[in-house]
Amino acid sequence: MSSNKNDVTQSITQVIAASSLGTLIEWYDFYIFGSLAVIIGQQLFPSDAGASALINTLAIFAAGFIVRPFGALVFGRLGDLIGRKYTFLLTLVLMGGSTFLIGLIPSYSSIGYAAPILVLILRLVQGLALGGEYGGAATYVAEHAPVGRRGFFTSWIQTTATMGLFLSLGIIVLTKNLIGAEKFADWGWRIPFLVSILLVGVSIYIRMKMHESPVFTKLKSEGKISANPLKESFQKKANFKMVLLALFGATMGQGVIWYTGQFYAQSFLENTCKLDFNESRYILLWAIVLATPFFVVFGSWSDKVGRKWIMLSGMLLGIIFYRPIYQYFIDATNVKEFQKTELKTATAPEITRELVKGEKDSIITTTSYKTLNSGFTFKESVVKIIPDDVLAPLPEDKTVIADVTLPGKTYVIIILLVFFQVLLVTMVYGPIAAFLVELFPTQIRYTSMSLPYHIGNGVFGGLVPFIATLVASFPGSTPLSGLWYPIGIAALSFIIGAVYIDNRGDRNVMD
């Protein structure tokens, strides 16, 4: 018996390793774009586009999420008809190829608006591919896992999304530090896109050696494969009810918790709190390292106590604590206010003068680097416009803060607060793969679980950075206004899930 158990464990370990590596690389490919949104926006749009360049770039990023449900339908159907293995092998090739090509697209200065259009097309291909990847990987692992440990084994797949983000951030920071900030902003940002082709090649080699899921193989040998997975998933009342429950009671709330804790947190620290490029990414890297093991902890725990309340507790904690956390981010990094009483040193100002584009007015920018007694350092630029008409009134000077670095205590507290947000991600995301595969019969599992997952994550979750940033830019809004979107979605999902989801743990529904 011991020998058989070891053989099963080894087989499951190989399945998880092969599935996880490919999924990790696909998430890496998907996330480097979001991590470099500011720099990519400067490359894809006119130099005078200002804040609209970031919003437009986030919209392109969001487009990849919006098409993920369509990828779930296309590749989910293939997965239920021809098998899990070859379907998510195809999605890996599409994702890797698109990512590599994004690294080759010329900038706006070379080909004009063709640049963002081409990148948008490639982002759509990425979104379609990722829409077919996750359902295949999660289904493949779950159909190999023994009863009683399905949450534990599928939770390893759940770590890949966060580890893909970690890998993307790590390669971005390493590349920037090696070649310098100026070269990275010019052409070095392309390197993380281009090196992904090497990672994809390794993963394709490993996946080619994988075998088909035993559950699907048995189904196929018995001639019980669904002739029309889409029709069975969405026209049969019982199955469609489960699709809606999975979406509105689980994945919708899980999606906004995921993207708030890991994407919007970084975007907020960099764009609202004006943290240095590396500083904001190091914070997220530390938080990810500390929190990632909890995917497995909560996935395994869900085998014993059920999936429902672990996932819903993560949503509820986000609803309660998001606004206080982000308010602390604002208060703790307000160097513009701190320097009134804490200024320690300031470098000699650097003064530049340039003409306003298309006009005769001049812009004079005075830049200096400052250090506060509390340990903050930052760059302060005072922008003064000198009208060509000497009788015209002088516009008010504009002060711009950038490249803020934090003192030790504040740095640690912010890491812990981001870690708490990623911990909530592990609560909602760790058990959800097992939860989804157990909702649907084998014949339509790939299709049925993929659609609600990718609508919840791709549409509701993936739009968090774009919608939150857009809402916060409206007249009369505050920096915290954007948080009402993820809080509202999580609250709705919590209520539906609390009322309608059964709190059952691992159960044998894989026949």
TrEMBL record:
One of its GO terms (molecular function) is transmembrane transporter activity. Residues 15-505 form the Major facilitator superfamily (MFS) profile domain. SUPFAM superfamilies: MFS general substrate transporter. The chain crosses the membrane at residues 27-45, 51-74, 86-105, 111-131, 152-175, 187-206, 242-261, 281-302, 309-329, 411-437, 458-477, 483-501. It is found in: Cell membrane. The keyword Repressor does not apply. Keywords: Cell membrane, Membrane, Transmembrane, Transmembrane helix, Transport. Gene3D superfamilies: MFS general substrate transporter like domains. Its main location: membrane. InterPro entries: MFS_dom, MFS_sugar_transport-like, MFS_trans_sf, Sugar_transporter_CS. It is a multi-pass membrane protein. It comes from the Bacteria. This is MFS transporter.
